[in-house]
Amino acid sequence: MPGARNGKRSPPRPEPAPSAEEPEKRRAILHAAVRVFAEKGYHGCRIADVAKQAGVAYGLVYHYFRNKDELLESVFAEQWTIFINAIRAIAEGPGSASEHLASICRFAVDVYKTSPSAVRVLLLEVARTPNVLRAGSTAQTFQTAVALVAGIVRRGQREGDLRGDADPTVAAASLLGALELTLTAAVVGLVEGAREEDAERLKAEVVGFALHGLSVRPRG
Amino acid sequence: MPGARNGKRSPPRPEPAPSAEEPEKRRAILHAAVRVFAEKGYHGCRIADVAKQAGVAYGLVYHYFRNKDELLESVFAEQWTIFINAIRAIAEGPGSASEHLASICRFAVDVYKTSPSAVRVLLLEVARTPNVLRAGSTAQTFQTAVALVAGIVRRGQREGDLRGDADPTVAAASLLGALELTLTAAVVGLVEGAREEDAERLKAEVVGFALHGLSVRPRG
Amino acid sequence: MPGARNGKRSPPRPEPAPSAEEPEKRRAILHAAVRVFAEKGYHGCRIADVAKQAGVAYGLVYHYFRNKDELLESVFAEQWTIFINAIRAIAEGPGSASEHLASICRFAVDVYKTSPSAVRVLLLEVARTPNVLRAGSTAQTFQTAVALVAGIVRRGQREGDLRGDADPTVAAASLLGALELTLTAAVVGLVEGAREEDAERLKAEVVGFALHGLSVRPRG
Amino acid sequence: MPGARNGKRSPPRPEPAPSAEEPEKRRAILHAAVRVFAEKGYHGCRIADVAKQAGVAYGLVYHYFRNKDELLESVFAEQWTIFINAIRAIAEGPGSASEHLASICRFAVDVYKTSPSAVRVLLLEVARTPNVLRAGSTAQTFQTAVALVAGIVRRGQREGDLRGDADPTVAAASLLGALELTLTAAVVGLVEGAREEDAERLKAEVVGFALHGLSVRPRG
DNA sequence: GATGAATGAGGCTTCATTCAT
DNA sequence: CATGAATGAAGCCTCATTCAT
To answer: Could you say which nucleotides of strand E lie within 7 A of any protein CB atom?
Structure first.
């Protein structure tokens, strides 16, 4: 889950501080959960699988997490935190709003290239989980991401960089959605995206779509 | 799940022919499945819930469907069929590619307004389902939808209506993705979308995003 | 669990009406639960054991009872109902208060002779269960039993049959307690109580204790 | 768990000698076990709870006790030892058998007033424990208590103080049973017993019941 | 002695599926 | 067609016990 390295801008490593406190095995469990979760989805993800994948005993999962929901909530939170930190770092960095949006797209594709499972969790499982989860912190984190992107859009509109007649929130959702389904298509195999050059192409495509749309004619 | 009625174009009713054969209760079960499925997701959707929701006896579900997977596969198929038929009808109708894409967006938003649960199933459940399903006809149907939209894009490119440098498949995925997450945001409440005028605004926003992107500057 | 047949008075069969509604297997489960519960106590009583003992499938227990607590609560309720109905029948029958108390003692010993496990459940598990249960209907039923006996005592006091200076509630608790621990001693083997003549002796002993105490001297 | 201080006779402090050897934390664990055990019963009593209640580390419990059974067996033994020592001291002291029985009742009520949880353990948990325990020293200790009281009764019969036609063992069980359920009723709240004067009343009631029974008429 | 992380068997509960009526 | 009782495998969670530090 490295930062993007794409010749334009390289967002900082946005990993949550691996607090010296955090036990190694807790982290192992969390990582394992990401993989299993990504592969089987929320309900298909069995604690036994996670434990096995993490190489720890069944019971240890419950030493560190109250129950399955809390574990998966943690997975969500962590993944979103990484993504949100990246967005925030990008937003606070130099460059125009357009460039920021482009960087976000590139970052997402880069992360996908490195650890597709993380992206699957990040993008495919949101809002697809039982209400318990949706009611929790996950929903808020999701909204935070949208809000951050919307903030960038708003700034771009103020600075004359982006279309002023677009609703920032809808725009943010649209951009993230385009990103998501494109990556989904890659995950599913509809689109090539694994090789280095494919990834570069994907980035360009999504950025192009988000910034310029499909029409050849200027709006008006 | 009526066609859109939006002053521009009204796609035909794309419901699968309610073959005189189909028993009323089978249909009731299918409808109930859509609702429950949409509300609880694949694994959260219990046969008992569907039966209760449909107002039929437990065992009857197994009279009409071999098992849970087949039931949900049917739900998918039916929903996608409706959507695909609509896309196909639009694609075969008069108008430029741009107009077709716009119509597709409007149709989706209209359907969402009428039966959000159908949209949830349609859009949110695709990638979450166990592999059994993904390997089945569902995946193909999903790909069919993408392919149809990609076809429209391709035609638009030939006719000089749409940007020629865009990958049609990625473009199709992006458009559907933007559509999806915008509606998701509406479902989740991030964006207003329930009232008539909100729906109209959503349509315009998504269409604008898909056709013109966010940038004020023409690409070049 | 027949009525007593002891030459003095024969209380009516106080079984709860075997409502034509009640499924046979539900009853089988309940009976099995009594036995297993009595043998292993609340926590030692595994659902699997009950199911096996009842000769039904594991899951059927959950068809008829929401969960383990509800099952055991039902066991309690049923047992207490039987006992309370007997007490009530005795209390409403002819005879002095002293005779009623004696009948209650005899009834208890008789039931014990017939189905010791029922008595174990009835007497040994009360107030020894997790708070969930104690908070439930069980506690109230227990109090009902005490109250009924206290009522008999009160009447005896009015009619000059029983000591007027005794607190009816404490007296009722004492009587039931003497009954309980005597039967417990029988259950545990401290006291002979299985054979017919042993049972008769037990009855006489307890009745004697409850009515006349141990002292040779009249209280003064 | 002090001796009774009730104006009539004050049994000696029957605590087991706190051998200078016994580590302070071992004692803390034992005391904590009494409380937790009393509150939750055998199976509801988790080692973790005991450790927390005692304010010691999880593993330390296993440093002092081989396993859960041994811990609880120790609790039982200690509690019974206290009670049995008290009975023995009373039995060996001066006074008639009637007075001895009365003293035992008063002692029990006094202990209850001071530490209800100890009484709960003492009285309520005997017959509920898994067979392992019942087979162990606990059962014997319980029988010892009954035997001691029965011995007092026997002496009273020899000395013409108590009814000669009563079975000493049944009488002992009855007396202890009356005591138990009366205190249970107090624990459960059916009867007032917390205040000083309530306790005094309880004592008088139970003693009256045990010695004179409920009947106004002399037996015969 | 003292700590608490680590282990894993055991029990409760759910729910897809079958089947007799 | 329709019903719902019956089945049992599968997964979550607890908690006694061990062990390295």
So the answer is: 1-20
Percent of chain D with pLDDT over 70: 79
Residue C214: HSE in the Cβ half-sphere, 13 Å Cα cutoff: 35
Is the confidence at residue B1, as pLDDT, over 50?
A: no
Give me B50's structure tokens: 């569907």
C113's tokens: 């002779």
pLDDT at D26 over 90: yes
Which of A48-52, B141-145, C129-133, D176-180 ranks highest by mean pLDDT? Answer: A48-52
**Under an 8 A CB cutoff, do C181 and D170 touch?**
no
Asked if residue D124 has pLDDT above 70, the reply is no
**Contact between the CB of B59 and strand E at under 7 Å:** yes
Residue D213: phi, psi to the nearest 5? 70, -165
DSSP state, residue D120: I
> Residue A209 is which amino acid?
F
The count of C-alpha atoms lying within 13 angstroms of the C-alpha of B121, restricted to the half-sphere facing its C-beta, is 31
Residue C125 is predicted with a pLDDT of 67
Q: Tell me which range, A127-141, B70-84, C90-104, D132-146, is most confidently predicted by mean pLDDT.
A: C90-104
Q: A36 vs C122, which has greater pLDDT? A: A36
Per-residue tokens: D97: 């058998």
**Residue found under tokens 């959960």:** A33
pLDDT tens track for D44-75: 889 999 999 999 999 999 999 999 989 988 88
Candidates C25, C20, C17, C136; CA nearest to C76 is C136
Residue D32 · residue D23 · CB < 8 Å:
no
The mean pLDDT of chain D is 82
- What DSSP character marks residue A95? S
Those chains having 3 or more beta-carbon pairs within 8 angstroms of chain D are: C
Say which CATH class C68-220 falls into: mainly alpha
User: How distant is the alpha carbon of residue A216 from its chain centre?
Assistant: 30
pLDDT in tens, A188-215: 778 887 688 888 999 999 999 999 988 8
- Say whether C183 sits in a helix, a strand or coil: helix
In this predicted structure, what is the pLDDT of residue A123?
64
How far apart CA C92 and CA C207 sit, in angstroms, is 20
Residue spans of alpha helices (H) in chain B: 24-44, 47-54, 60-64, 68-92, 97-114, 116-119, 131-135, 137-158, 168-188, 196-212
Tell me how far apart the terminal alpha carbons of chain A are, to the nearest angstrom.
41
> Which residues lie near nucleic chain F, judged by CB under 7 A?
A 45-48, 58-59, 62, 66-69; B 23, 25, 56-60, 62-63; C 23-26, 56-60, 62-64; D 45-48, 58-59, 62, 67-69
The domain ranges of chain C are 19-65, 68-220
Shortest CA to C1' contact from A68: nucleotide: F12
Which fold would CATH assign to domain D19-65?
A: Arc Repressor Mutant, subunit A (1.10.10)
Instruction: Say how far apart CA B42 and CA B122 lie, in whole Å.
Output: 12
